[in-house]
Design a protein that fits this description.
Number of strands: 9
CATH architecture of the largest domain: Sandwich
CATH topology of the largest domain: Jelly Rolls
CATH class of the largest domain: Mainly Beta
Radius of gyration: 23 Å
Oligomer: single chain
């Protein structure tokens, strides 16, 4: 593909949906010679526009993306899709049974908090790390007690990436 086709290939994409890897696919290798100067200027304009839209908001919550999920028993409470990062705003565990439950809250399979729930109690759990994605889901593991008596709930917001 010729470098003078760079702007034409990307003209129908908007900055919200463009994949940065597309720049390499469309642009190929750029050589800093005199004939490519105009193409380099086009490429620089595209990258600066993408950066201006995405960089200032990187990691910020996305408006109207909030949700709450619940999980009975142990397992993953929140596992965002491949292209999502979630910011956990609240986590609650509830013991519906008549005996205590000891559990571990995990992120990516690593215990980040250990909790004991008294019979019939509800506990708000504070987390140090509040970001999760497809590779590091938020989960709960029952160490002792009845798994079927546990209900875990999580409120979250998706973040820009």
């Amino acid at each position: 593909m010729l470098m003078d086709e760079l702007r034409n290939q990307l003209k129908n994409q908007d900055l919200d949906t463009v994949n940065p890897a597309a720049f390499l696919e469309v642009g190929g290798v750029v050589f800093p010679d005199k004939p490519s100067a105009a193409n380099l200027a086009d490429f620089k304009t595209i990258v600066e526009a993408y950066r201006a839209v995405h960089q200032p908001s990187l990691g910020s919550p996305i408006a109207l993306s909030g949700n709450t999920v619940a999980k009975a028993g142990e397992g993953n409470i929140l596992e965002p899709s491949t292209s999502q990062v979630a910011l956990i705003s609240a986590l609650q565990c509830e013991n519906l049974g008549g005996s205590p439950i000891v559990l571990n809250i995990t992120i990516g399979g690593i215990a980040v908090s250990s909790q004991t729930l008294a019979a019939g109690s509800t506990l708000a759990v504070a987390l140090t790390s509040k970001y999760v994605d497809k590779n590091t889901p938020l989960g709960v593991v029952v160490v002792s007690g009845s798994e079927s008596d546990l209900i875990s709930s999580c409120s979250y917001l998706l973040t820009s990436q």
